[in-house]
């Protein structure tokens, strides 16, 4: 019955704010595409680690890894490497969006020059 209560609460949330879930991230890829052509592929693992590959046009790929945690409606990442809006070893939280493969949304981020941009994010099947 706890699951039904949670499902009912989740159904209510959908009407007001689209809350995401970490479940669809495990075994799949979260892809963030920036207007400058930078693509970041995130792979999340249980219980609390992630890896990311950042590909910028004309530059070598950058690999990062770190820890993740859910904080309310946000997912918070601490990366060992600076990339995009992430500073090395400093936690950054973003809204937790998407709860199934195929979901797409827009998220605010920073480009390589530190300018605010809107990235297109999606959950893609597989790694």
Rg result: 15 Å
Structural class: mainly beta
Q: Let me know the average pLDDT.
A: 85
Subunit arrangement of the protein: single chain
Q: What sort of overall outline do the alpha carbons produce when their principal axes are compared?
A: globular
What is the spatial order of strands in the main beta sheet?
Answer: 6-5-4-3-2-1-8-7
Distance between the termini: 34 Å
As residue ranges, the low-confidence spans are 2-17
**Total strand count, please?**
8
Please work out how many helical segments DSSP would assign.
1
Helix content: 10-25%
Largest sheet composition: 8 strands, antiparallel
Question: How much β-strand is present in the residues?
Answer: 35-45%
SSE pattern: HEEEEEEEE
What do you see in this structure?
By secondary structure, this protein is mostly beta strands. It has one helix spanning 2-16, and strands spanning 29-33, 39-45, 49-55, 62-71, 74-79, 92-95, 104-110, 116-124. 12% of the residues lie in helices and 43% in strands. 19% of the residues are buried.
